[in-house]
Amino acid sequence: MATTVSLLRSLDCRACCGSFDPARPTSTCPNCGHTLLATYDLDGLDGRAWLRAVAERPSTLWRYRELLPVGAVESIVTLGEGFSPVLQLSAVPGAEDLHVAVKDDGLLPTGSFKARGMAVAVSRARELGLSSLFVPSAGNAGVALAAYSARAGLTARVYLPERTPPPMKESVRRYGADVVEVPGTIREAGERARAEEKGRGSFDMSTLREPYRVEGKKTMGLEIFEQAGGVRMPDAIVYPAGGGTGLVGMAKAFAELRSIGLLELPPRLYAVQPDGCAPLVRALADGAAKVTPWAEPRTIAPGLLVPAPFSSERILEAVRATKGGGVTVSDRELVEAMRSLARRHGISASPEAAAPYAALPKLRASGSIKGGESAWLYHTGTGIPFDPVALERALGSEATPAA
Questions:
Q1: Is the torsion defined by CA of 5, 7, 11, 14 positive or negative?
Q2: CATH topology for 86-110+214-394?
Q3: In tens digits, what is the pLDDT along the chain, a chain of 403 residues?
Q4: Pick the CATH number of 114-204 from 1.10.1740.110, 3.40.50.720, 2.40.160.20, 3.40.50.1100
Q5: In the chain, what are the domain boundaries?
Q6: Is the pTM here over 0.85, yes or no?
Q7: Cα 339 to Cα 85, 102, 135, distances in angstroms
Q8: If we measure between CA atoms, which residue out of 205, 207, 211 comes closest to residue 11?
Q9: Facing residues of 155 across strands?
């Protein structure tokens, strides 16, 4: 059996300092219930030599195989994910003196950055002998789980809020996964999923409730490092935060690059949330160690309708470790940003993916990002399932408190 030469060593909990064997299927920390993160044996890894080897490999996220958790090549489930393009933008109104680029994960398989996490997590699940997977999702994660489970020959169930866009529901079904529609937000979908799946022998693939989706998201940071030339990193990365796994993943990537001598100063990470559901931004402003649930959450962006992200302590740590911050935008600004990205720059954006573009002038005006600095906007998903006209119409109706 061919190996990937993965340097995976253990699964570690930052909350209670527990360490666990990664050879067995594990969700959250058995001791305290917090998130487990993969640790790699990096002491003997020559960073410069590794980077030269990576450059000779195929342009998928699996080029970083030593820093990914899958040990056997035969276990890898892939649709060609990773290495999405970086697109330079012309002047952004309100931020004309910044150097702006978009990292466009809307072009990945299944149309969003969720392909990264699910490719790695489903591959690892198959390697560990799991056969039945489930996830509560606002849409994109469910589509990705359905697609990668189909490719791996595993069964999948996806619990979706009833208000999830119909094209996403149909995409999940098209890949052969079961769909369970739930009233409310992803919080209620998660509660329903964990209640119904108890005792079934299925495995929870929820954000930060299993250790390996964040490893797929980590490749966002590894690619940014490589595509920036490994020398001049962007000063800031602006990211739309729902469950927040991407922030944890990018911060983890930068920490690992630093530990092997490839990076000194990471980019500052900025979390963008809608003003009708901004628990992370509020916690950052308050200096809180974790979020408090957002009362009456509302937004037209389904992926950002996360009133109480799990393991928020790790998300907040990730932002603070890079000396970043948070900012909110309105639903109307999301729709305007979707239109502007399409008409000014030729980029199709979901409302979530448009959030960094909408936030950029605010970050410039506040001085969080200064004139002359470079900012990369993390574009998390295609706008194909969304109609800006319908979203604008929903500003006065569907963008109301969840049931």
A1: negative
A2: Rossmann fold (3.40.50)
A3: 688 899 999 999 999 999 999 999 999 999 999 999 999 999 999 999 999 999 999 999 999 999 999 999 999 999 999 999 999 999 999 999 999 999 999 999 999 999 999 999 999 999 999 999 999 998 999 999 999 999 999 999 999 999 888 999 999 999 999 999 999 988 999 999 999 999 999 999 999 999 999 999 999 999 999 999 876 899 999 999 999 999 999 999 999 999 999 999 999 999 999 999 999 999 999 999 999 999 999 999 999 999 999 999 999 999 999 999 999 999 999 999 999 999 999 999 999 999 999 999 999 999 999 999 999 999 999 998 888 888 888 785 444 333 3
A4: 3.40.50.1100
A5: 8-75, 86-110+214-394, 114-204
A6: yes
A7: 21, 15, 31
A8: 211
A9: 132
Whose tokens are 């649709």? That residue is 79
Do 86-110+214-394 and 114-204 agree at the fold level? yes
- Helix H or strand E encompassing 161: strand 155-161
